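Consider the tokenized backbone below.
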């Protein structure tokens, strides 16, 4: 009987130890919570950095869009200037032809 009783006590103690070995201590839970809090703070900082980067990218895109508009306007002005130059050249050629047609020819008799 004593052996049976000792066996039951031993088995009960072993069962309690097995049951308690799966439980976390208060310190373990506090460390896990602190680690989770640090991870959350890091994630929040990363999100803030990402938001700032997105704002910078948006500003850069807006500046690039404005630069494209200015470049397009400059190209249009340059195209108009080239067209005006070509028109002036055509007019100069036409005037030169008129002047040449009015000059007396050398060696021609009246």
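A designed sequence for it:
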């Amino acid at each position: 009987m004593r052996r049976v009783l000792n066996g039951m006590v031993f088995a009960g103690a072993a069962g309690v130890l097995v049951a308690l070995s799966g439980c976390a201590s208060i310190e373990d839970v506090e460390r896990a919570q602190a680690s989770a809090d640090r991870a959350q703070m890091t994630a929040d900082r990363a999100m803030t950095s990402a938001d700032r980067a997105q704002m910078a990218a948006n500003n850069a895109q807006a500046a690039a869009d404005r630069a494209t508009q200015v470049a397009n306007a400059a190209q249009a002005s340059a195209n108009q200037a080239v067209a005006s130059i070509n028109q002036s050249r055509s007019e100069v050629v036409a005037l030169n032809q008129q002047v040449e047609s009015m000059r007396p020819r050398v060696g021609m008799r009246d």
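The mean pLDDT is 84.
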